[in-house]
Amino acid sequence: MISIVLNFFTAQALSGYTKCVMKSENKDILRALLTKQLEELISEAGKTVHGMSGAKEEHFPDPTDRASLETDRNFLLRVKDRERKLILKIQETLAKVDDEEYGICDFCGEEISLERLKVRPVATSCIACKTEEEENEKARPGL
Ligand SMILES: [Zn+2]
Question: Which of 1, 24, 70, 112 has minimal CB crowding within 10 Å?
Answer without folding.
Answer: 1
